[in-house]
Amino acid sequence: MNNSLFIDVGSYQKQKNGEDCYGDTIYSKKIPEERRVISILSDGLGSGVKANILSSMTTRMAMKFMEDNADLLRSSEIMMDALPICQTRKISYATFSIVDSELEGKTRIFEMDNPHFIFIRNNKSLSIKGRKFSSPKWKERAINASQIMTQPEDRIILISDGVTQAGIGNQKYPLGWGRQGCIDYILKEIQKDPRISSQTLAQKIVEEALNKEIGKKAGDDISCICIYFRIPRKLLVLTGPPFDEDKDHEFAELVSDYDGKVAICGGTTANIVERELCLKCQIDKTSFDTQIPMSSIMEGVDLVTEGILTLTDAYRMLKEGIDRKSNVASVRLVNLLLSSDKIDFVVGTKINIAHQDPNLPMELEIRRNIVKKIFRLLQSRYLKEISVRYL
Known about the structure:
By secondary structure, the protein is α+β, with helices and mostly antiparallel strands. The protein has two domains: 6-230, Phosphatase 2c, domain 1 (4-Layer Sandwich), CATH 3.60.40; 234-390, no CATH class. Helix content is 31%, strand content 27%. It contains ten helices and 18 strands. Helix 6 (248-257) crosses helix 7. The model has no long low-confidence stretch (mean pLDDT 89).
């Protein structure tokens, strides 16, 4: 197995209509020293706050047990014992699906009462046989354990029953969308875009499930985690001019020498690259927006944007979700960041006098700080591999 394999993890959720919080909980964590990525989806009994407590406790405990390589059957008993008892049904209950992946290729999947995971290889859904284990203490609960040696371009999809039961009771889907309906949709989306990222695919699955519901109102929490094993996609982000002007040519050559996609954020930064590499830079008028400056087009560069305003808006959307039309510069930057795996930031440290203007918004961050916020979020929430270099 290729040791440079990257595990791209994305997730998306919609809470049950009328509830203020998710009854399902999603938790993913990278363990760099062990070259592992663990992803967990838990569905708490019922919905709303009560379900959220059950599923949150389950994911936190399960993550701790998985990190420690504890016996899962015994760990499941401990989790069931620890969960509050439902006064109506007299059970402590939350389902879970766990994917424990190693970069070398071995992946273990553990499931209890969630819809069975979906495994895609060579644009086909493959059935993976697992082994069932029952706890002597909780005999009505069975854990299904599977193991796969993953390959580049494999995908694993975890879904809650809010996906498979979407639309249940309406004329077209009297028994719900079903697992097979979800599989058919996933294969269609991958066929349309074989490189579709986990984040985008997870969002599409949840939104398609919501479309099946009567009045597009979720009858249950709808949750999805997508895991995509692939050769890493690299991205270079250049922002800000170097402190020393003598470094301008070295700075610009990073663009021509880079083995991957390139984004330039900042007008002065773009001018340096344009001048030093004898390239032409033109405004992209199709990216017009009333709040975010337009992007530009430069040969050999995937995206050219304004600097601080665009980076600040990109950070906000990474935290809150995309809410602008797709061709806006900051949206294109977010999509480029999320579709990449190894992201190299090169940050110039020369102070831009324009940013000292007191008429600019108070929340405007200086470049170095906003880049730090972006790469920390990309690392913690999106599990990207980040490097930062200051010039």
